[in-house]
Design goal:
Blueprint (H helix, E strand, L loop, with lengths): L4 E5 L6 H14 L6 E5 L5 H8 L4 E5 L16 H6 L4 E4 L2 H6 L4 H13 L3 E6 L3 H5 L3 H12 L12 E4 L13 H19 L1 H4 L3 E5 L7 H5 L6 E4 L6 H23 L6
Parallel strand pairs: 1-2, 1-8, 2-3, 3-4, 4-5, 5-6, 6-7, 7-8
Helix pairs in contact: 1-2, 1-11, 5-7, 7-8
Bound molecules: phosphoenolpyruvate (PEP).
């Protein structure tokens, strides 16, 4: 059984006071067990949000990291800097960076390596555009992105990874992928991970769904086979909305665990 993971990606939102208030409310409302929670604020708020989360079960994550540990890279933030600021997790390969900033697949692989070298847990995002889906190449695109992202990962490091399947057309649009789109893609990702590292090692890797998850649709999405949590953008900007998703994951994880203990299969 994989403990569900819910990660909030605040993107380029919040000023310091709002970030601190939001983190405090999530810290106070997060359940004591049954689900892992990560908040990914803008870089400039990592210190302040980290202070709020210190000693709690809610973890701190970066939204990206540079592929090098240090150097002349104006405006960038390295993985060791994230660790120094208190982060334990980092998003890499988010589609807003792939598409708006032109980050290629290979770079995501180097960033994943950099995150692991710094002992961060990478949340690797993959996902197809609407054009790619219409052309019938969704699975090929997503598996190509996965292979590139994992190109420099050693088998023993596999359990430190999470993946997020985020169809680009579902991010920030209010359009949610349907179960018939989500379930086969998660199955394809799981099969690739198993083929790469064996089910024992790869079994620990969580595959999250991301794309317009909110308090209303979370129950359904998080109960789907192969969905081990969610990467949440817009709905992570209010504590009520985000905590409702966290609770849906906790309940979904608990009911999946009882199905397994009754021998009824996994999610
Ligand atoms: C995201 O930023 O990864 C995301 C899924 O955003 P949203 O939930 O707003 O679609």
């Amino acid at each position: 059984m994989r403990t569900p993971l819910i990660a909030g990606n605040w993107k380029m939102n919040t000023l310091r006071a709002g970030a601190v208030a939001l983190a405090r409310a999530v810290r106070e409302g997060a359940p004591a067990d049954g689900v892992e929670v990560v908040l990914c604020p803008p870089f400039v708020h990592l210190g302040a949000v980290g202070e709020v989360l210190r000693g709690s079960r809610v973890r701190l994550g970066g939204q990206d990291c540079h592929e090098k540990p240090e150097g002349a890279f104006t405006g960038s933030v390295s993985a060791p800097m994230l660790v120094d600021a208190g982060a334990t997790d980092v998003i890499v390969g988010h589609s807003e960076r792939r598409h708006a900033l032109g980050e290629p697949d290979a770079l995501v692989g180097f960033k994943t390596r950099a995150a692991l070298d710094a002992r961060l847990a990478p949340i690797v995002c993959v996902g197809e555009t609407i054009e790619e889906r219409k052309a019938g190449s969704s699975e090929a695109v997503v598996l190509r992105q996965l292979d590139a992202a994992l190109a420099h990962v050693r088998p023993a490091e596999a359990p430190r990874l999470s993946l997020a399947y985020e169809p680009v057309w579902a991010i920030g649009t209010g359009v949610v992928a349907t179960p018939r789109e989500i379930v086969p893609m998660h199955a394809a990702l799981r099969a690739r991970l198993d083929a790469l590292w064996g089910a024992d090692r790869a079994g620990a890797i969580r595959i999250l769904y991301g794309g317009s998850v909110n308090a209303k649709n979370a129950d359904e999405i998080l109960a789907l086979a192969g969905v081990d949590g969610a990467l949440v953008g817009g709905a992570s900007l209010t504590s009520e909305g985000f905590l409702a998703i966290v609770e849906a994951a906790r309940k979904g994880g608990a009911s999946a665990a009882s199905r397994v203990s009754r021998g009824e299969g996994t999610r």
